Amino acid sequence: MSRNTTLHADTDAPPITAELARFVATHPSRGWSDAVEHEAHRTFVNWLGCAIGGSRHEATDAALAAVQMLEPSAQAAVLGRRERVDMAGAALVNGIASHVFDFDDTHLRTIIHPAGPVASAALALAERRGSSGRVLVDSIVLGIDVACRMGNVIYPQHYDRGWHITGSTGMLGAAAACARLLGLDAHRTTMALGIAASQPVGLREQFGTMTKPLHPGAAARAGLVSALLASRGFTASPRALEAPRGFAQVVSTKFDWSEATDALGERFEIAFNTYKPFACGIVIHPTIDAAVQLRARGVRAEAIDRVELLVHPLVLELTGKKEPADGLQAKFSVYHGFAAGLIVGRAGEDEFADALVRRDDVVALRRRVQATASDAIDEASADVTVWLRDGRREHVFVEHAIGSLQRPMQDTDLAAKFAALVEPVLGAGGVEPLLESGWSLAQAADVDALVARAVPAL
Amino acid sequence: MSRNTTLHADTDAPPITAELARFVATHPSRGWSDAVEHEAHRTFVNWLGCAIGGSRHEATDAALAAVQMLEPSAQAAVLGRRERVDMAGAALVNGIASHVFDFDDTHLRTIIHPAGPVASAALALAERRGSSGRVLVDSIVLGIDVACRMGNVIYPQHYDRGWHITGSTGMLGAAAACARLLGLDAHRTTMALGIAASQPVGLREQFGTMTKPLHPGAAARAGLVSALLASRGFTASPRALEAPRGFAQVVSTKFDWSEATDALGERFEIAFNTYKPFACGIVIHPTIDAAVQLRARGVRAEAIDRVELLVHPLVLELTGKKEPADGLQAKFSVYHGFAAGLIVGRAGEDEFADALVRRDDVVALRRRVQATASDAIDEASADVTVWLRDGRREHVFVEHAIGSLQRPMQDTDLAAKFAALVEPVLGAGGVEPLLESGWSLAQAADVDALVARAVPAL
Predict the structure, then answer these.
(1) Quick one: what percent of chain A has pLDDT higher than 70?
(2) Interface mutation target, options A1, A60, A67, A70, chain B, most CBs of B under 10 Å
(3) To the nearest whole angstrom, how far is the Cα of B331 from the nearest Cα of chain A?
(4) Residues lower than pLDDT 70 in chain B
(5) Cβ A205–B239 below 8 Å, yes or no?
(6) Are residues A379 and B198, on separate chains, in Cβ contact within 8 Å?
(7) Structure confidence at residue A8 (pLDDT)
(8) Do residues A304 and A368 make contact, with C-beta atoms less than 8 angstroms apart?
(9) Residues near A348 by Cβ (< 8 Å), separated by ≥ 6?
(10) What residue ranges of chain A are covered by domains with CATH 1.10.4100.10?
(11) In this predicted complex, what is the ipTM?
(12) Which CATH number fits domain B282-398: 3.30.1330.120, 2.30.42.10, 1.20.58.100, 3.30.365.10?
């Protein structure tokens, strides 16, 4: 009772909880550039594909089985599946599914994967409420803005401390999006953010387990329920984000308040979202990109004598596994990344299946790759030279891999990624109609048609 | 991707997640002294009274209304009410109700209020599963042991940092209790604790808002769902509590691992649980206790000329409000505490109602109290001298207030507190049968009769 110590305290923090809430509650619908509007659709399509692709993963199965123990009502769809659960359960399970392949979007400055918490909560609520696509897009843009801005406030010290920032800011983004969908006023939106502030989710120690994808799912759920509570008059501190014993000062030692509100309503963080072209850690991406480019030039595995790969030392430190035994190990093998890229021409989840990792031609090519670490080359780059059996030589230098801000995935790339994720779940005929619903989301009177296309036919 | 910094890291922490899980999974039923067994029943009865007493608070109303938006199935009772919701919703709402009066139990060493998260989750799951009272008591003893031991590991730095420790350790206690109720083996219990470790709930900034009682409720819910997930094969890090980027090292700068496992299975933290006799901050308790003692000696308000109150300076710093305008302010008035104790003979939630706070005789007595701060007197004590109009003098020195470990509430005190909380909700006839069910919990074949007595008759 007598303890008043705080390790560090900024008692003069500006009222960012209230300012962000007012922004979320009052910013005009579609109050941004065409580029931001387009990026919102790209974010949604990428998230939708990832969630459907991950819908049959054992983590998704286990989470859905647990939710079923609550005998939920059938308010909202589990994407890619026939089951329906209450909207909070749907936010949880879809959030898990969308992150389980580590294939979702990235706000590079904070390494937040923002769509998982935000879109998973927003779509479930929108389905239940019969919201228009327009309102849903608005809520996703604003929710992602809140999550990523709060990430900017506390990153990197927050992440360094051990928080999985996607889940530990995602509940704020989800609460903001759901408050907007519910039409809450500025005061109740402040309460929603405040309630969510008490529920950060995610420890980095969980990486490599099912609890990693739980983080965006549980954050989606917490944010959605926070908004529901606020809509019913539940209260929280109006300074929950910035007070000395509020969110930012409790979970980080850095809190740059200006990041919360600088150019608010002018600069949108969703504009800086990126999408993974390959289902593995980002340091392997330049090498896979180079392999795909070599394949496009006509280089075939059987014609290769040897491969010289020049990469930053960190690449080998993190992904230097020479002889991966299975798909999980292959995600940490730049050698496998090269082989998959050259032989298959892509590196989606299928290219990290155990069978492919063990296939003779893949193993043989992997063994012909020599990787050398060099401080002279950037983490984001790869320098690849291939000596062919006929004596010729091919060289590719990738400065920025496909999927980076400098070389973003084109819409056609996203469509191809979407198809690869969705087809195994919904069949070939299911891809195009759903993709069309995704690209035209803002025009939809409600989300029913999209949701109907996002689950298997009876 | 390249960042490997940690601010502080103990990479050699013992495997406390697995050790606590093995303990929870394998410790024999009723494997403790009669005193511990009795304290478990006292903890349960006190929690049950608080939850029913708080069942009509506006925070409980708002939370239940939000849960109803999910159209939950009717798996478990909302205590003190007719509504039934799914077990996770019941854990949430009952956890909120039990803490909303700030009248629940306290593990003094960590100021954790352990029953809120643990019993709220455990009773909801026990009702759904048809568990025996014996299994429920076992789960509460073990769950509270896990939460308070983890509190001992990280307190006080964790609390000083700004965490509301009841919710930020409570999800571990709830997960442990529910894992025990579900009969999970040591491995799956490890997973349940690991899943829960990613979901700490609670910022001290929320004190004074409805989100404060949300903390035990949301922790109960998170712990219950973590155990359900583990029961379905969901995985987490087996070192989620102790790893460098695991729970303890992320949320505190102190981690005394020995606290987790020293005398595990011999010393039970529930043995150190205490119960508030008065519905206000603990520093006022010695003064109220003195007033109640004076009343018992026959001292009446109208006979009092003046009162001299000698207390530790902190008491006036925290509760020095001389003229409280309403019930909320009265909780921060040692003057009101004395007046209520002397005039009514108790200081439950009713004695902090606006009407009583403003009653003429209460106001008049309050104004006759002179409080003096002195460093010579302990925080836990109060020295009270009353000068009567007839010239006589009465003096009481309270070294340790009723409700402290040194002067614990007797079972009869707890029964009186229970009656005062429950009667307004269930009626006079509802108190004794339910109290009997509480005291005999371990003998019950299932919890159905108790639950039926804990809700209003149709």
Answers:
(1) 98
(2) A70
(3) 14
(4) 1-8
(5) yes
(6) no
(7) 62
(8) yes
(9) A103, A278, A279, A417, A420, A421
(10) 16-276+446-453
(11) 0.94
(12) 3.30.1330.120
